[in-house]
Amino acid sequence: MMRRYASTIIVLVVIFLIVFYLWNQRELVATLRHITFTIVLLLILLRLAIMVLNGLFLYIFVEKFNVRLRVLEWFGLAAVTTMGNYITPLSGGLIARAAYLKHQHRLPYTKFTALLAANYIVMFWLIGFTGLLTLGWLDQFTVDKWPIIILFGAVVVALSIFAVLPSFHFQSQQRWLQAINSLGDGWQQIRSDRLLLAKITICTILVIIVNGLSFWVGYRALGITVTFSVGILLGLIAAFSIFINITPGSLGVQEAMISLSSELLGIGAGQGLLVVLLIRAASMVSAFTLGPIFTIWLTKQVQSVETSQQN
């Protein structure tokens, strides 16, 4: 209960600060006049594509446990998860997804979450490596970019070390050590299955590309021309906000990270803030249009199974 109140207070403070900042930046807000219906539609479609890719991630993972989801299931669960993450903090949408999989397909929480957690090893190693490559491509290995360089470099080094470690298991009931055990178990499953690793890698690369396109289009929407490489870089940085999800949709965290990074890249903090708000709005259009529809449909699937079991 206290955690929920704290999250609500943080959200209200963040919204107030954003509104206060934009209220005092009238010239910045005026750049919104460059936005066209075509660009808005393109942003919505790009965020919808991210949702589809998240659904495919889910399909790939559960297939490992001989569970074959129908299209409406994996896409519907992705929509509900996205909507849930915007409503509740701490990735509340993930809990709903895990509950559905356990109820409908008898997929244990522990097995699924272990594999899902291990996916972050692959995903963030690729994000870190791609980030370093992009910085090199943009010739941005300079002293003033040290926060971004350290972020990507530390992720690549830390995950590379973890990935090559032999199988291990801590004999302890402490929660954080159990989480490491779960992560290690999941990684062993992925590492031993080259086809699964290849599928995860391809999906992650596609997410990186689509997310980068979202930022590239976002800046174009404001009349600011940036290279696709810059869009990729900012999309990669935005991905790290998943680790600080104390507010619904990491509201405030992602805005701060992109604003700072946009300033470091010489584009402007205010411009970065507007772009991430545009992308967030486009994501919410898809989430809150499709999310309620699939919540009803998936609930009916659960109820139909319960009815058949009772009969």
Description:
Helices cover 78% and strands 0% of the residues. Helix 3 crosses helix 12, helix 6 packs across helix 7 and helix 9 crosses helix 10. The protein is an all-alpha fold. The two termini are 38 Å apart. The longest helix is centred in the last third of the chain and has 42 residues. The mean pLDDT is 85. It is globular and about 65 Å long.
Short descriptors:
mainly alpha, 0% strand
Topology:
Layout: H1 2-23, H2 26-30, H3 37-63, H4 71-87, H5 92-105, H6 109-137, H7 146-164, H8 175-191, H9 194-221, H10 228-239, H11 253-264, H12 269-310
Helix pairs in contact: 3-4, 3-9, 3-12, 4-5, 4-12, 6-7, 6-8, 6-9, 6-10, 9-10, 9-12, 10-11, 11-12
